[in-house]
């Protein structure tokens, strides 16, 4: 199996920044009587970070799970690289170069760090035996690339702190993402310095590797720092979109605060 070069060289003239990569069209999703997504529409382009803002329960994680193949929409369509797609499983999304950092980490506690990083991407020889030395070496490179201090890669995930488990998930997704990187609250459990590194990773992979990146967060300041474009989700709908240069953290705070106050007033 060929190992992906972590930071490929991008030839001048090849970078297609701005080309549409993903379009979400009128996507709905319900869990019984609870409607999680209500006609969501959004676009992600190559070479940009799109922040998805919203409170808990707004539908952000449900949307990410649909884009990454963990859930199927009840209605609506995903268009990837100009073609309609319908994922039957996460492996279908991975086959198209889509990787995800889940909000719930999705690490297997009984496996060492390097095996978690290569989960579903295991390196084997012709007989099917694992090539642990190669995976350990490449796992170290993946962790070095995100710049977060970690124990040895043969340490079991159960011995890691919450932040270190999050770093493992980030390293896995950034190492294998080829076209679209989904980051569902990737700074959860991380300190200020580590969070800044993850934000820089999102921007670096968009600009240097020409990936589309969706950065999910409830934090207005992190969204503004990370993103080229910002969507705000509320009760399963995207209610506004702002380009970074057209707004500010203060304006976003004012808009969102006013919407929350308005919603609370309606419920009385």
From TrEMBL:
- Spell out the Gene3D superfamilies in the cross-references: P-loop containing nucleotide triphosphate hydrolases
Q: Which SMART domains match?
A: AAA
> Where do the ABC transporter domain residues begin and end?
22-260
InterPro entries per the UniProt record, alphabetical: AAA+_ATPase, ABC_carbohydrate_import_ATPase, ABC_transporter-like_ATP-bd, P-loop_NTPase
Question: What is an example of a GO molecular function annotated in this UniProt entry?
Answer: ATP binding
The record's PANTHER family line, in alphabetical order, gives: CARBOHYDRATE TRANSPORT ATP-BINDING PROTEIN MG119-RELATED (PTHR43790), SUGAR ABC TRANSPORTER ATP-BINDING PROTEIN (PTHR43790:SF8)
Q: What is this protein called?
A: ABC transporter ATP-binding protein
